[in-house]
Amino acid sequence: MTQAQQDPRQADPQPPLPEQSQPPPGLEVEMQPKPDYGEETYQGHGRLEGKSAVITGGDSGIGRAVALAFAREGADVVISYLDEHPDAEETVRVVEASGRRCVAVPGDIGEEAHCQSIVRRVLDELGQLDVLVNNAAHQMLYPSIQEISSEEWDKTFRTNIYSMFWLSKAALPHMSPGGTIINTTSVEAYQPKPPLLAYATTKGAIVTFTKALAQEAIEQGVRVNAVAPGPVWTPLIAMSYPPDQMPDFGASVPLQRPAQPVEVAPAYVFLASQESSYVTAEVLGVTGGKLLPGG
Q1: Active-site residue set
Q2: What is d(CA 226, CA 236) in angstroms, rounded to the nearest whole number?
Q3: Do 48 and 272 meet the contact criterion of CB atoms below 8 Å apart?
Q4: Dihedral sign of CA atoms 62, 63, 64, 66 in order
Q5: Confidence band (pLDDT; 50, 70, 90) for 293?
Q6: Where are the domains of the chain?
Q7: With contact defined as beta carbons under 8 Å apart, do 52 and 76 qualify?
Q8: Is the model's pLDDT at 3 over the cut of 60?
Q9: How far is CA 125 from CA 53, 84, 86, in A?
Q10: For 205-223, what is each residue's pLDDT tens digit?
């Protein structure tokens, strides 16, 4: 394991990422270099002791880092993923090695029935639902709006927006006071790049959804917040960006590098824990110094 993987805070400057390409949805096991999700470095302090969480996209990237961090903070987790079985198996391994339960649920969250089944699964197997992390996302880059098909637009919205709506709707009736919903938006919601038109549009909608739902959910004692990452080294990048753009990925932010997933996970721990008990309807940026206007 490299020094940068051992402690991402020492990864500035880091070597340019090598050119690479993967078909959607991408596999972390195929990435070079491997993202650092915190296996060697994340230390828990009991912040989520006795809680149960659902994390979509929990097989890899930010989702895996959050699953590991939650487990080391004392939570059992259900991870939802599409069909990236090798990555999901690794997440299950590290969560269980941390002494917590991990239930892996494959399937397409772009279908309402599957979202409802995820909530039933956590209730059946873990007995309660305290934290919902809507993290899974789909993105592809297109040079022009003319090249985005209706099918691609629909897939992006079903994965990024509809699933968040369906899961939140199904989860809220089962969440007790002190529960939390954490959505994953992006710096793209505020400073969108034209090639990410569909993805950026959904991320802007997530900000609005978060702020609106928070006002309703707090009536039952449930807080709703969002995390807005900047560039993060995940399979989503390896499978969607052109290979020749890899070496410069993340170089435009003040820290001049992409984040590792382990650097983003603590934001989710904070928002899931009682340490953020007075925080709701908020967007927490983890952007490497890139500002979030209006956030």
Answers
A1: 199
A2: 19
A3: yes
A4: positive
A5: confident
A6: 45-286
A7: yes
A8: no
A9: 12, 22, 22
A10: 999 999 999 999 999 999 9
Q: What residue has token string 């993202």?
A: 35
Query: pLDDT (tens digit, 9 = 90+) per residue, 101-113?
Result: 999 999 999 999 9
As given in the structure block, the two tokens for residue 190 are 């505020």
Domain 45-286 CATH assignment equals 1.10.20.10:
no
Distance CA 115, CA 108 (A): 8
